[in-house]
Amino acid sequence: MTHWHILGPGAVGCLMAALLDKNGIKVTLIGRENSTGFQTLHYQSPAPNSTTSTIQVEYTTTAQLNTPMDVLLICTKSHSTKQPVEALSSHITAHTTLVLLQNGLGNHEWLAQRFPENPIVLGSISHGVMKIARDKIQHTGLGTCQLGSYGQLKVSQESIAPLPDDDEDWGMSWQDNILQALWYKLGVNAAINPLTVIYDCKNGELLDGAEREARMEQLAWEVESLMGYFDITPPTDGLIGLVKQVAKRTASNSSSMREDSRAGRITEIEDINGYVMRKAQEAGLNCPANAEVLETLQHWQDEKRDD
Ligand code: KPL
Q: At the top level of CATH, which class does the domain 180-306 belong to?
């Protein structure tokens, strides 16, 4: 049976552990904490019929892992990826499939260069999930989990695991063009996340004022023009249509970037609007709204670090 190792026992990593375990797939979580062996993880399913189930998950650390891996699912924050993946590299054999499931873009290019012989799968997840205690996650909203092959070596859905595509809690689908799905997510995050930090508001409140909405439109419009350059077909209602739909659907959410910023953690701005700016430079396009939010958030982050 395929054994999945999940790097990053945060909310998404634990959700994936719970969903994989529920579907009979062997899972080990890899974290920083020096407590290894089997530990209890409580999973609270979404309301209104919320129930809590308990699973026993194996935990290990990068230093203590001592087996080659079948599948390495990377769920770390995008800015904390390279170092722990390097630390695991002696357990990545030619047979290890690397699955990247995180916000922002850029690490997929590094992964393909660093591990050119390995099958690579990219993913985009829209489930709502919160880690409410060290050993407890709350699945706050059902969503989807899109996966797809990336790079030279084509990976088929069947080859990584019998992933359930008929399980409602999972919302799993295999995409032939996963980069397109990831650009859509990048566009949504680039237009919503930094503005929720700047206006210190929930996602839905970005639709409450003309200035906020205009800035959101401009950010989305710039990403959409970049998509054209990289041969990515925009969503049917345009990227701005998708952005507004997500802002409405997740109206009461406080974005991950706002939460990171409030908690004084490094935000994913470099892997979201920063990635947009790196691609804009490659394409020779101007993206002034993305440049502005990037600069503002970088500046705020540096100020907090100096405090
Ligand atoms: O992905 C998100 C995030 O917060 O990172 C959105 C879609 C904006 C939902 O909050």
A: mainly alpha
